[in-house]
């Protein structure tokens, strides 16, 4: 007489022993019956019967079921599955995103990476660092001034060289019409950007332009 019979209900495996409470554990979609024979457990997976020790050695049980039981105990122990190979990301170029708003200036450097282990993968952007004028000590209304953008650009360009992000081409993308826009562009053309200017391969403007736009607010009555 089998003292332990397993039934598969959708995505769970129900294990019940004589005089014990039925316990459901997660399963991977395979029918697995665990039957203890003495202190050894045999498993019946898809009609094949084998000992637990042999199936663990073969590595079959890990692929067919996410959980196994030992002996007469109803406790389920998770079996670690093999981890997939992590993508090997290699940067091909860098992109410097410059966002200029009315009240602040944001600079973000991201790397366009390619997975060399997968020839069918598409390049993706991986953020390296991002800063605003608050990182250089400006607060509240001072963050929208040109001086704040100058200090931010000076510190950010220094971090690019210090962290070694100056070995690949850099694409500059400008967005917004804040006060820091003219400051950052002047710095790229001036002495402050002499270390980065030779690496710039392209400068583009991604400022959003409203074609028609939304309905303007109602004019107040005077």
Overview of this protein structure:
The chain has about 220 residues and is an alpha+beta fold. The protein folds into 2 domains: about 5-80, no CATH class; about 90-205, 2-Layer Sandwich (Nucleotidyltransferase, domain 5). It contains 4 helices and 13 strands. Strands 11-10-9-12-13 form a 5-stranded mixed beta sheet. Strand 9 (about 90-100) and strand 10 form a beta hairpin. Helix 3 (about 145-160) packs across helix 4 (about 180-190). It starts with a strand and ends in a 17-residue tail after the last strand. Residues about 1-45 and about 60-80 have low confidence and may be disordered.
- Arithmetic mean pLDDT: 74
Q: Beta fraction of the residues?
A: 35-45%
Major sheet? 5 strands, mixed
Helical stretch tally: 4
Give structural attributes.
Nucleotidyltransferase, domain 5; disordered N terminus; five-stranded mixed β-sheet; three-stranded antiparallel β-sheet; alpha+beta; 4 helices
Give the helices and strands, then pairings.
Elements: E1 4-9, E2 12-17, E3 23-26, E4 32-37, E5 40-45, E6 48-51, H1 52-58, H2 60-64, E7 67-69, E8 76-78, E9 89-100, E10 105-115, E11 124-132, H3 146-162, E12 170-175, H4 180-189, E13 200-205
Parallel strand pairs: 9-12, 12-13
Antiparallel strand pairs: 1-2, 2-3, 4-5, 5-6, 7-8, 9-10, 10-11
Helix pairs in contact: 3-4
């Amino acid at each position: 007489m089998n003292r332990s019979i397993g039934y598969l209900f959708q995505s769970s495996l129900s294990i019940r022993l004589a005089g014990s409470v039925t316990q459901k554990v997660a399963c991977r979609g395979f029918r697995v019956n665990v039957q203890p024979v003495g202190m050894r457990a045999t498993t019946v997976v898809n009609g094949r019967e084998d000992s637990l020790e042999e199936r663990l050695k073969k590595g079959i049980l890990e692929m067919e079921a996410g959980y196994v039981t030992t002996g007469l105990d109803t406790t389920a122990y998770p079996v670690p599955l093999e981890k997939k190979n992590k993508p090997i990301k290699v940067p091909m170029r860098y992109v410097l995103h410059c966002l200029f708003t009315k009240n602040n200036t944001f600079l973000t450097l991201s790397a366009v990476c390619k997975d060399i282990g997968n020839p069918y993968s598409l390049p993706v952007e991986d953020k390296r660092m991002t800063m605003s004028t608050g990182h250089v000590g400006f607060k509240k209304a001072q963050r929208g001034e040109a001086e704040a953008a100058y200090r931010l650009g000076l510190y950010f360009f220094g971090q690019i060289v210090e962290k070694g992000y100056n070995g690949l081409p850099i694409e500059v993308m400008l967005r917004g019409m804040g006060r820091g826009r003219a400051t950052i562009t002047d710095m790229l053309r001036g002495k402050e950007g002499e270390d980065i200017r030779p690496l710039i391969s392209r400068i583009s403007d991604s400022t959003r332009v409203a074609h028609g736009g939304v309905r303007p607010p109602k004019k107040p009555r005077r």
